[in-house]
Amino acid sequence: MNPETQARIQKMVDDNKIMVFMKGNKLMPQCGFSNNVVQILNTLGVPFETCDILADQEVRQGVKEYSNWPTIPQVYLNGEFLGGSDILIELYQSGELQQMVEVALAS
């Protein structure tokens, strides 16, 4: 990944308490896994930003290197990589996600 792409990804992660790299956007998810993440975050009623990796090939490939995680979507909470759809579902069902989000938004 080139330094400019890494800097763009870093800025999005740093500037947003909850950042989701996904196929599509929060208004129009383009895959089921991305939709799962959007639905969970909407259910929690928390603000989050998205980046449509389908619209930016450099970010699409770069974010996989950035996180060392091969799949999309990717969720960052307070600058930390949280995981993808399966991990978010597990955290939501256990109640951990709500607590993690509350702590992140309060900081």
Concise overview:
By secondary structure, the chain is an alpha+beta fold. It is built from 5 helices and 6 strands.
Strand order of the largest sheet: 4-1-5-6
Estimated share of beta-strand residues: 15-25%
Identify the CATH homologous superfamily: Glutaredoxin
Rg: 13 Å
CA-CA gap between termini: 31 Å
Low confidence ranges: none
How many structurally independent domains? 1
CATH uppermost class: Alpha Beta
CATH fold assignment: Glutaredoxin
Number of helices: 5
CATH architecture: 3-Layer(aba) Sandwich
Give the biggest beta sheet.
Answer: 4 strands, mixed
Mean pLDDT: 96
Helix content: 40-55%
SSE ordering: HEEEHEHEEHH
Number of DSSP strand runs: 6
Dominant shape: globular
Describe what you observe in this structure:
The chain has one domain (3-106): Glutaredoxin (3-Layer(aba) Sandwich). It contains 5 helices and 6 strands, in the order αβββαβαββαα. The protein has helices spanning 3-15, 32-44, 57-67, 85-94, 96-106; strands at residues 18-22, 24-25, 28-29, 49-52, 74-77, 80-83. The strands form 2 sheets. A 4-stranded mixed β-sheet has the order 4-1-5-6. Strands 2-3 form a two-stranded antiparallel sheet. The longest helix is centred in the first third of the chain and has 13 residues, at 3-15. The model has no long low-confidence stretch (mean pLDDT 96).
